[in-house]
Amino acid sequence: MAILASSSSSLLFSSLPSNLPPPSLHLLPRSSLSLFSNSASLSSSLSISPYLFSHPTSSRRSSVSSFSVRASAAEKKKVLILNTNSGGHAIIGFYFAKELLGSGHAVTIMTVGDESSDKMKKPPFNRFSEIVSGGGKTVWGEPADVGKAVEGATFDVVLDNNGKDLDTVRPVVDWAKSSGVKQFLYISSAGIYKPTDEPPHVEGDVVKADAGHVGVEKYIAEIFNSWAIFRPQYMIGSGNNKDCEEWFFDRIVRKRPVPIPGSGMQLTNIAHVRDLSSMLTVAVENPGAASNNIFNCVSDRAVTLDGMAKLCAQAAGLPVEIVHYDPKAVGIDAKKAFPFRNMHFYSEPRAAKDILGWRGTTNLPEDLKERFDEYVKIGRDKKPMQFEIDDKILESLKVPVAV
Known about the structure:
GO terms for molecular function: UDP-glucose 4-epimerase activity. By secondary structure, this protein is of the alpha/beta class. The chain has 15 helices and 16 strands.
């Protein structure tokens, strides 16, 4: 089941399209374990105690009563999105703004920096006309001067989709509190979870105490009565300006081997950004449910690294040659050679599904076809490219490369 926001902003449940292809063998079914029980329906919102931050191990497998949410006539909100000007997260604000506008909310998206910068010539920023044409407002400025950038406007909800540390986010939080904002949302990162021998990561797992996002999460919980934290992983979607699936397409279309560190069986999570924006929209339209909760903002399925390569090749309609290597033996930095972590790294959206009634729609075999069509449309398949790190890896493995 998938949650869809209607034009009246009420939340409706509808079945996924029946014409979707059967799941790929490379997509692993979600765990049957549940973080939450299904024994009760509550009329009030659930909250995560500050105790969670100091003793996170205590809540990993705890049972929390769940309830489903159905908003019959969601209040129209004035929402400010503070959006980063680079990286994979930039697309979140773009999709979120468009979804909110489509549901009748008023939206201002404030991008960090200068409107005339070269960064604004890249997606998703060069598509901001879609936000304006939908009735939204776009402004630019610095987080420390957010009040000046929005020219004194007031908002019901603020999403910070920019700051990674407290120094950057604190001015936004303080301004929001002083200006009467009722709900504060924050895009954190699933990267703050400590590696575990018991994947997947679920809400309440131990986090890295020194991670910048953790300090921000704590501060928001101290300042606001109504807040929600969202921890995304990797994402795909039209307008993304950080290589993910493109990294695989670059090699597949040029008939080059795809070098993957390790066994290729490492698990990760890749979600379409429409799922991230839909989760955020549910939180805006159901603040009582979302209040004081942390949500893994991810797909509900994992994919292996080898599986991602095969799915990209399937989307392109081309064969793929995968080679595995040991980064240390080759003498290269895997972070520079490969777009994903060289380890098991995936989360599940258990809290969003149980507390918000949210359902994801990510379908990698289909979503990657859309992405490949766009890849070809912009001519990236014909663009001259150098693969220096790949060449070093392949040379060490004595794998020939077609010229």
